[in-house]
């Protein structure tokens, strides 16, 4: 087993130089998410057919909504049980001694979600490919349509319960000056002026907005790479987050929230948790919300 660490943020040249590493598992995490233009109904499409048409050599495909989620129709992306997650990792050929690089074709958010799940289940030997599939292909790096070799693997989950929180903890955090609540949705969703997607418009009271997608997001929409570390720090600092003792991120269903949590990890902030139910849960209760 190699002792070389996997960078949390993996650059394409690092990965290309290690495509043949026997303990490395590359995972395509692509999901296509859209919303009905009038109703706001969520539409989820697996990225498996994209992976079959072309992928990073040696990569496997992870179906997040079915294999890496609890499969609750009301909250479709909530984390699975440790047992289900371990089974899914072993099916992907990921074991305790593996090294993992995650990517997607949707702005890094789904890859960051799986990174956060791995972290929450005690696995730290993983990184997110900076720029994902878009950057990989834009730089004309190797592409394959061949299926990967099967690998026997044993994944032993070691859950870290503090990586996720429930609505009761979020409710208490509203009045806790030591905790920042970060909404990773687009500004119009945060303001409550956009299409209503999660039961009610608006945000959790007292939360600040650091969007994971869009023109001012933590990911540059031009090349799908994360903003430079200084720019990321500025974005969170302007929102008053970097001086907090702890941070809870949320969004609509836990995906953009995981991306924001990953960005905070890149800044060296460890006391971060994801509210997994996010507005899919909060917005359909009588818990308080506010709008601009």
Can you describe what's shown?
The chain is α/β, with parallel strands linked by helices. It has two domains: 9-159, 3-Layer(aba) Sandwich (Oxidized Rhodanese, domain 1); 162-282, 3-Layer(aba) Sandwich (Oxidized Rhodanese, domain 1), CATH 3.40.250. It is built from eleven helices and twelve strands. The protein has helices at 12-16, 48-53, 64-67, 82-91, 109-120, 132-138, 167-173, 187-191, 229-238, 255-266, 278-282, and strands at residues 9-10, 24-28, 31-35, 42-46, 60-61, 99-103, 126-129, 164-165, 179-183, 208-209, 246-250, 272-275. The strands form three sheets. It has a five-stranded parallel sheet with strand order 1-7-6-2-5. A five-stranded parallel sheet has the order 8-12-11-9-10. Strand 3 (31-35) and strand 4 (42-46) form a beta hairpin. Helix 5 (109-120) crosses helix 10 (255-266). The longest helix has 12 residues, at 109-120. It is globular. The N and C termini lie far apart (54 Å). The model has no long low-confidence stretch (mean pLDDT 94).
Keywords:
292 residues, alpha/beta, Oxidized Rhodanese, domain 1, 2 domains, 28% helix, globular
CATH topology of the largest domain: Oxidized Rhodanese, domain 1
Q: Report the mean per-residue pLDDT as an integer.
A: 94
State the name of the first-level CATH class of the largest domain: Alpha Beta
Biggest sheet strand line-up: 1-7-6-2-5
> Roughly how many Å is the radius of gyration?
18 Å
The computed structural class is alpha/beta
Looking at the overall shape, the CATH architecture of the largest domain is: 3-Layer(aba) Sandwich
Largest sheet: 5 strands, parallel
The low-confidence runs, each spanning 5 or more residues with pLDDT under 50, are none
SSE run: EHEEEHEHHEHEHEHEHEHEHEH
